[in-house]
Design goal:
The complex is a heterodimer of chains A (about 450) and B (about 400). Chain A has three domains: about 150 residues, GAF domain (Beta-Lactamase, 2-Layer Sandwich), CATH 3.30.450; about 70 residues, Helix Hairpins (Orthogonal Bundle), CATH 1.10.287.130; about 160 residues, Heat Shock Protein 90 (2-Layer Sandwich), CATH 3.30.565. Helix content of chain A is about 50%, strand content about 20%. Chain A is built from twelve helices and 14 strands. In chain A, the strands form three sheets. Chain A has a six-stranded antiparallel sheet, with helices on both faces. Chain A has a five-stranded mixed sheet with strand order 8-10-11-13-12. In chain A, a hairpin with a 4-residue loop joins strand 5 and strand 6. Chain B is of the alpha+beta class. Chain B has a six-stranded mixed sheet with strand order 1-6-2-3-12-13. Chain B has a six-stranded mixed sheet with strand order 5-4-25-24-28-15. Classes of the chains: A alpha+beta (about 450), B alpha+beta (about 400). Chains A and B meet through helix 1 and helix 2 of A and helix 5, helix 6, strand 23 and helix 8 of B.
Chain lengths: ~450, ~400
């Protein structure tokens, strides 16, 4: 049967096929390239979203109550996940060493052991397969032990961030100059959050200090009222009985006794007011210390003499133990005497009659000077020691009535010891006496120079 | 009962603890773990023992993991499957001899599975995908699977599985073999006859060239297409010079696909076996495929990864799974997802894993991992390795 369409020749069909093949390949090629361009654009967009994601996550972390130290690791996770790198680390420049030493604070993946030295650390750097092995390439690639790294360093805060890849291609394309925005952005976010977190911690600490101060002030006022009223009541009460128009008929003996009570109460008031003034002027006095080298032996002997009267009265022997070699301490004469006087006064006050109170100075192995005041008095429970260092916190108030004092001696001594760069530590056990040690830093202690 | 847990954390202890909390306590018969490559494998194993005691742990590294609560490929992900019911817990068979000879190791594994498997049993094969990172060399799934089929002989089983990677850059891989952490090992988890599996395979590649004939090939190394250097042909298609390190980027761009069945039939995504390109060698003009299972004379096409097609395929696959597969007897939905499909590699604007974890019916425990290669029954033939696919395998209890 004849067909209405002409039969194409084989040659024509082959040409037609070749045309379609060519067109198919050409269109396919264009499609492939478009597809790849689109994919690449998306991959870059994803990478560039790192900083935005980091900002969102970092502030969430900061608000969740993580500490400064806890923020680094999750931030590195976010960076690694978005930048799709093999490892990352946060570093902190160490002081000294001309700023070339860096400590690794946080890391994901293996890192160099210990601090790393980066001479003339650059603010931005990256390595590729074309990088030559010369500073700082060698030093930076050794941090993560990876050949391809991206580095940013913030000179003002000393923080640095490094990302690393084992291979240059595949998912992780080679690092390039355009990555400066990513790495510096990521480092900036970290530093911002770090500073914010640090400020928040400082604020919290300051708030806690303020709250403690406020509590102390309230306690101070309550105790003050009580402490002032007791001797004042005694003074007024006995004075009323002694005035000429009094309805009381007093014998001479009574009058002598009441006068003595009034005198005692007045002296107690004076002691109390002196203590309050000392304590309240402590903060202002601290920066004004006027230190000089003093012979330690004389310092101990003078203080011992000051409490000598009270010790004799209470039948307590004060023993001064001098160091083997004549020593000098660099202290404010007035203020440091007050430290020893308060401690020695307390020891004598709480020591039983017939006992010995010992005061001495030793030199620690590290050169520090250690003043020790030891008594064999009533002592206190270890858990009460922190309270004893707070103002107006006499552990046993009934005893306070007997022994007197406003409970300010130890807090004042502690504040002054710290003002000298030292510290005050108490060891005590109930019924076994108390040992107080005031330690001065090595630079404030020396062997007395000859001549 | 099978329970699953997913967590992402750089501290292995935290990751394990979070997964353990999701598993809901108890002492399982066996644990299957997919562990992100940046987590310390030994630390994870130690913490698993801390949490679960002396329970055997199988599985290994994963370029990422996918759970109901999230997914990722940062290397800090951990996916855990706990087999609590002895009636559905698999029996493990291990080979540690992949380095010596993949096909022989696969054969040994097949023989060992033959001894313990019931006819038609479900077998989950997991293996270390990476021989070495530099130069990049893979343990070929096709060799292992060929050996496995030879070893198992006429005792047909339903084989599925995946290659284990530590990351998307093919830097490494390792296996939990029930005792410790191993390189160059493969495990086969043989399920009891009470368990069956249904799979849905999701693709995403489309041919962008006419058919070409492989005129010279040696193993996975394709030297010539239509008589011309393979690299030159592909470079021309891409319009950019490759070679050197950039050769590896080919795996981000194109694949070679072999159409099954009628070559001139209409396009059907299920008709293609795709092979990713591992690297290019400018010196020989060749490209190296992920698998050495194409032969001289095979007609192949250059395939473009089509992201919209991939997402479409996932949506379609989820619908099929929810409609035809997932039901009251479903025990576990396991998603074996080619690592290249993650947006960071594919450049897809939507993560297909996210579609999957949101889309799969909520009644069934779901876990997934990013793999180097996927193994599944394909085109009504014995299971074979696939590239650039997502395989959703739903285990169900047989009544």
């Amino acid at each position: 049967m004849a067909t209405s369409m002409p039969i194409a020749s084989l040659g024509q069909l082959e040409r037609e096929l070749a045309y379609y093949r060519r067109e198919c390949n050409d269109l396919g090629s264009r499609l492939l390239r478009l597809q790849e361009e689109q994919s690449q654009a998306f991959r870059e967009a994803r990478r560039s979203r790192t900083v935005a994601k980091l900002i969102r996550e970092a502030y969430r972390l900061a608000d969740q109550g993580s500490t400064v130290e806890q923020i680094g690791a999750p931030m590195l996770e976010i960076i690694v996940e978005n930048a799709l790198c093999d490892g990352a680390a946060l570093l902190k420049q160490e002081p000294g060493e001309e700023g070339t030493l860096f400590r690794i604070t946080h890391t994901l993946g293996p890192t160099a052991a210990g601090p790393v030295r980066v001479p003339s650390p650059p603010e931005f750097f990256f390595t590729t397969s074309r990088s030559s092995i010369e500073p700082p390439t060698y030093e930076l690639t050794s941090i993560l032990r990876m050949p391809y790294v991206l580095w940013a360093f913030d000179r003002s805060t000393g923080n640095a961030l490094i990302l690393g890849n084992q291979s240059e291609s595949n998912v992780s394309r080679p690092f390039e100059a355009g990555d400066q925005e990513l790495i510096e952005g990521a480092l900036s976010v970290y530093i911002d959050v770090l500073l914010r977190k640090r400020a928040e911690m400082e604020l919290r600490a300051a708030k806690a200090v303020a709250e403690r101060a406020s509590e102390a002030r309230a306690r101070f006022l309550a105790t003050l009222t009580h402490e002032l009223r007791t001797p004042l009541n005694a003074i007024i009460g006995f004075s009323e009985m002694m005035v000429p128009e009094s309805r009381y008929v007093l014998t001479t003996q009574d009058q002598l006794q009441y006068s003595a009570h009034i005198l005692d109460a007045g002296r107690h008031l004076l002691e109390l007011i002196d203590g309050i003034l000392d304590y309240s002027s402590l903060e202002q006095a601290l920066p004004l210390l006027s230190s000089e080298w003093l012979p330690a032996g004389k310092l101990l002997a003078d203080t011992s003499n000051i409490v000598g009267g009270m010790a004799r009265h209470r039948e307590v022997l004060v023993q001064v133990r001098l160091p083997d070699q004549p020593m000098e301490v660099y202290v404010d004469p007035l203020r440091f005497r007050q430290v020893l006087q308060n401690l020695l006064g307390n020891a004598v006050k709480f020591a039983p009659a017939g006992s010995i109170v010992e005061v001495g100075l030793d030199r620690g192995a590290d050169g520090r000077g250690i003043f020790t005041v030891r008594d064999s008095g009533i002592g206190m429970r270890p858990e009460d020691i922190p309270r004893a260092l707070e103002p107006f916190q006499q552990i046993d108030s009934s005893l306070a009535r007997v022994t007197g004092g406003a409970g300010l001696g130890l807090p004042i001594a502690k504040g002054l010891a710290e003002a000298h760069g030292g510290c005050l530590l108490i060891e005590s056990a109930l019924g076994a006496g108390t040992t107080v040690r005031v330690t001065l830093p090595p630079e404030r202690v020396r062997i007395r120079p000859m001549g | 009962m099978i329970t699953v847990g997913y967590a992402k954390h750089s501290d292995p202890k935290v990751a394990v603890k979070r997964c353990a909390a999701a598993l809901g306590g108890g002492r399982p018969q066996m644990l299957l773990a997919f562990c992100g490559g940046k987590l310390d494998a030994h630390a994870v194993l130690g913490q698993l023992r801390e949490e679960f005691g002396d329970v055997p742990v199988f599985g290994g590294s994963a370029a990422g993991a996918i759970g109901r609560d999230g997914f990722g490929y940062s290397g800090f992900e951990l996916g855990l499957v706990a087999f609590n019911d002895p009636d559905v817990a698999p029996q493990a068979v291990v080979t540690r001899a992949l380095l010596a000879d993949e096909q022989a190791a696969g054969h040994d594994l097949g023989c060992a599975v033959r001894e313990v498997a019931a006819k038609g049993a479900v077998v989950l094969l997991l293996f270390d995908s990476v021989v070495s990172a530099s130069p990049p060399r893979l343990h070929h799934a096709s060799s292992i699977v060929r050996g496995f089929h030879a070893g198992i002989g006429d005792k047909a089983v339903c084989l599925l599985g995946g290659g284990l990677l530590t990351d998307m850059n093919l830097s490494g891989g390792w296996v939990f073999d029930g005792e410790g952490v191993l390189k160059h090992a493969a495990i086969a988890l043989v399920f009891p006859p009470t368990v069956a599996v249904d799979t849905v395979i999701m693709h995403g590649c489309r041919p962008v060239s006419a058919f070409m004939e492989i005129t010279r090939i040696d193993g996975a190394e394709v030297y010539e297409l239509d008589g011309r250097p393979a690299l030159e042909v592909i470079e021309k298609m891409l319009g950019l010079p490759l070679g050197g390190t950039r050769g590896q980027e080919l795996s981000l761009v194109a694949t070679l696909g072999q159409k099954q069945g009628d070559p001139f039939g209409p396009y059907d995504e299920n008709a293609y076996v795709n092979r990713l390109i591992l690297r290019a060698d400018p010196a020989t003009g060749s490209v190296s495929l992920f698998e050495p299972d194409f032969e001289r004379g095979a007609r192949v096409q250059i395939m473009s990864r089509d992201n919209s097609l991939m997402l479409e395929s996932v949506r379609r696959g989820i619908a099929v799974a929810n409609r035809d597969i997932i039901g009251p007897d479903s025990l576990l939905a396991l998603y074996i997802d080619c690592a290249g499909r993650g947006s960071a590699r594919s450049g897809a604007p939507i993560e297909e894993a996210e579609l999957m974890l949101r889309g799969v019916a909520s009644g069934v425990p779901f876990i997934g991992f990013y793999s180097g290669v996927e193994i599944a029954p394909f085109a009504d033939e014995p299971s074979r390795p696939l590239d650039w696919t997502g395989v959703l395998a739903v285990l169900r209890r047989l009544r």
